[in-house]
Amino acid sequence: MPELPEVETTRRGIVPWVEGRVIQGITVREPRLRWPVPPGIGERVAGERVHRIRRRGKYLIFELDGGAVLLHLGMSGSLRVNPSGVPPGKHDHVDFLMEGGCCLRLTDPRRFGAVLWAPAPVDAHWLLRDLGLEPLDGEFTGDYLYEHARHRRVSIKDLVMNAKVVVGVGNIYANEALFHAGIRPGIAARRITRARCSRLVEAIKSTLEDAIRAGGTTLRDFVGSDGQPGYFSQQLCVYGRRGEPCRICGSVLKAAKIGQRSSVYCSHCQQ
DNA sequence: CCCAAGACCTGGCGGC
DNA sequence: TGCCGCCAGGTCTTGG
């Protein structure tokens, strides 16, 4: 379920093991991910130092000389640091063998993840170039959201999940942020006032920050990169709580399909 | 350009 | 216990 907080938690977990170290080689057991893992990627990156690991939306970017490895966890991916020599499991598709002997392992049962090479300038890569603002960036404001919302016929939930507007807001945190902002997920974006856009932007920021602080949400198959689960699931107000009482007013939470995705909301607290 | 729906995959769950 | 249909974190692609 990696959304932005899970990806950021993963990034922070692997930085001490990867940043500043040389990649000795890559083992690709299963190249059939969202896009095929490029056949020559091992030769391209072997012997290169990872200068920095940064995040853009839900992409992890390993910056090397002359380009970067782009990594996406899809819907079911996770990255772990293993001591080398741990036998791979069925869904352990790619290993990065690091200087010092540890092994960064990508596990992804559904294979919606990606491992790609992006030549410099990395941000011009076709997967990155059209991405919208980072939600935690100061440029992401109520006015920015309002300008993107005011002529759009899609629901406000679809709009905040649109990566061309703002990155990193997936189904879980869209539901949560709309609850905290008191906005029904199915309302047309064009009907949201500037003031409510501001409230929603603040809710998106605080929800993501709280989730990062908690180490992400634990759902089914996500485990933090250090092998420990995150704790944000204990703070979820609506996601996965259809039929349960609202934590604020006690009303039974309702569910609806919006833009093909399940949405849960409180019909009393959200208007 | 905008929007809705389809596509890619596997695994877990509830129901019978 | 076994099988079947449904559902799930994402997001690119297609067609209207």
What descriptive keywords fit this protein?
10 strands; N-terminal domain of MutM-like DNA repair proteins; 6 helices; 271 residues; alpha+beta; elongated; DNA-binding; four-stranded antiparallel beta sheet; Helicase, Ruva Protein, domain 3; 2 domains
Can you give a write-up of this model?
The chain has 271 residues and is α+β, with helices and mostly antiparallel strands. The protein folds into 2 domains: 121 residues, MutM-like, N-terminal (N-terminal domain of MutM-like DNA repair proteins, Alpha-Beta Barrel); 124 residues, Helicase, Ruva Protein, domain 3. The protein is 24% helix and 21% strand. It has 6 helices and 10 strands. Strands 1-6-7-5 form a 4-stranded antiparallel β-sheet. A 4-stranded antiparallel β-sheet has the order 2-3-4-8, covered by helices on one side. The protein has a two-stranded antiparallel ribbon with strand order 9-10. A hairpin with a 2-residue loop joins strand 3 and strand 4. The longest helix is centred in the last third of the chain and has 21 residues. The two termini are 28 Å apart.
